[in-house]
């Protein structure tokens, strides 16, 4: 595969205040250094913050929702609800396993989109839908399930998971050893954050483990929404 230097960017991942300038060349052409870039639809920043991607997702989701509201102004509730779940919610959830926000303002900003859609579809803020935070939690747990069961595309993460050194009576036997972290970036990264959620699952939720992914998803969703 030939790499096009005109479409290439250089980025150094660090949280240091003073950064060394990157000088990379490809085919004799200097690769420009950037602080953020889009990769497979996800905006990644050099400080590993997801603020840029959350803002990008919000702009895109509001644009799609406003378009639906103009076109389906006279539509029935089911059509409006289907339009939201088919065209807007996938925008809010694309790649959310890795960028699931933990800052309150980001969580609230994403929730406002769904609340507005619920008011449009049901004429009420109380939609009865799963919250976006609940759906992201289920998605993260399902992703860790794939890693735990060594699904081919998640095997690298699965191989890094370790059993805890100690299990109490109240623990389920599928717990994963927690990792140490010094920063919020590490604490709220996908693996570290989801290990904590995984370990706090009720033992009954994993009674049939290992099982088919769809069965696990349904069981976990029931446990999450019943809280």
TrEMBL record:
Q: List the protein's name.
A: Reverse transcriptase domain-containing protein
Instruction: Record the organism.
Output: Cryptotermes secundus
């Amino acid at each position: 595969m030939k790499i096009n230097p005109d479409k290439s960017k250089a980025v150094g991942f660090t949280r240091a205040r003073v950064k060394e300038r990157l000088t990379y060349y490809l085919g004799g052409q200097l690769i420009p250094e950037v602080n953020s870039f889009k990769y497979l639809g996800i905006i990644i920043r050099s400080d590993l913050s997801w603020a840029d991607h959350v803002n990008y997702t919000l702009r895109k989701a509001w644009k799609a929702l406003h378009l639906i509201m103009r076109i389906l102004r006279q539509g029935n509730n089911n059509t409006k609800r289907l339009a939201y779940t088919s065209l807007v919610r996938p925008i809010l959830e694309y790649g959310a396993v890795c960028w699931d926000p933990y800052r309150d303002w980001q969580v609230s900003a994403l929730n406002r989109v769904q609340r507005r859609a619920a008011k449009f579809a049901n004429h009420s803020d109380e939609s009865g839908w799963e919250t976006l935070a609940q759906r992201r939690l289920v998605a993260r747990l399902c992703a860790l399930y794939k890693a735990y069961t060594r699904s081919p595309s998640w095997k690298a993460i699965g191989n890094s998971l370790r059993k805890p050194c100690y299990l109490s009576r109240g623990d389920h036997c599928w717990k994963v050893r927690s990792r140490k972290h010094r920063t919020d970036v590490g604490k709220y990264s996908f693996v570290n954050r989801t290990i904590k959620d995984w370990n706090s699952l009720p033992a009954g939720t994993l009674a049939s483990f290992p099982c088919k992914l769809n069965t696990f998803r349904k069981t976990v969703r029931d446990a999450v929404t019943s809280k």
